Amino acid sequence: MTEEWNEFWLSDRNLGNLKSIYQGSYLVDIRTIDDLELETILKTELEEVKFDECEDQVGSLDGGIVIKSENSIIITPMCCGDIGNLREWEKILESQNNIWKQLWIGHPWIFYRRANGFIEISNYTESNLDDFNDIQVEYKLPEEEFF
After folding, report:
1. Cα(115)–Cα(25) distance, rounded to whole angstroms?
2. Do 144 and 122 contact (CB within 8 A), yes or no?
3. What is the pTM of this model?
4. Side-chain-facing half-sphere of 1: CA atoms under 13 Å
5. Chain centroid, CA 106 distance in Å
6. Which superkingdom is the protein from (predicted)?
7. Which tops the pLDDT comparison, 3 or 137?
8. How far apart are CA 132 and CA 44, in angstroms?
9. Nearest one of 125, 118, 136 to 103, comparing CA atoms
10. Is there a contact between 69 and 139 (Cβ–Cβ < 8 Å)?
11. How far apart are CA 40 and CA 19, in angstroms?
């Protein structure tokens, strides 16, 4: 995606003050969204909603948690991931040590496990845990820095 397109998708919706987390991404840092931009985002999301049927038409906003390590983005929400998936991240510190678990961030997703004070994270996959016999550690993050 060109820099011009990257800037266009934000300015097209009067969100020109926002910056994507990297060129080509539709994700922005939530800490940079002000009230006017939030209002614009919500109006856009709700513009075709019939309020007498809103429960079936309104979903969560796209996005989620982005993980950086040494100033590089290593994990981002994927297709169908949304900010409602935050509970999945909270489960990490509640999980047992040395047991791989799926972390739903959209698809493809990742697996994680706690091990010796670290959170180990796999590469993205669309395999089920039962079918993924040889999970390789792609990233190893200190547990105390994770949350």
Report:
1. 31
2. no
3. 0.79
4. 12
5. 8
6. Bacteria
7. 137
8. 39
9. 125
10. yes
11. 15
Could you give the dihedral angle defined by the CA atoms of residues 15, 18, 20 and 24, in that order, rounded to the nearest 10 degrees? 40
Place of tokens 């550690």: 137
47-78 tens-digit pLDDT: 877 777 666 666 677 889 999 988 899 999 99
Q: Is residue 81 classed exposed, middle or buried when 0-12, 13-18 and 19+ CB atoms within 10 A define those classes?
A: buried
Cβ atoms of residues 81 and 59 within 8 Å: no
Q: Given CA atoms 35, 37, 39, 42 in this order, what sign does their dihedral have?
A: negative
**Tokens standing for residue 133:** 């016999």
Give long-range contacts, CB 8 A cutoff, 24+ apart: 133-137: 135/100, 135/111
Q: Specify the DSSP class assigned to residue 135.
A: P
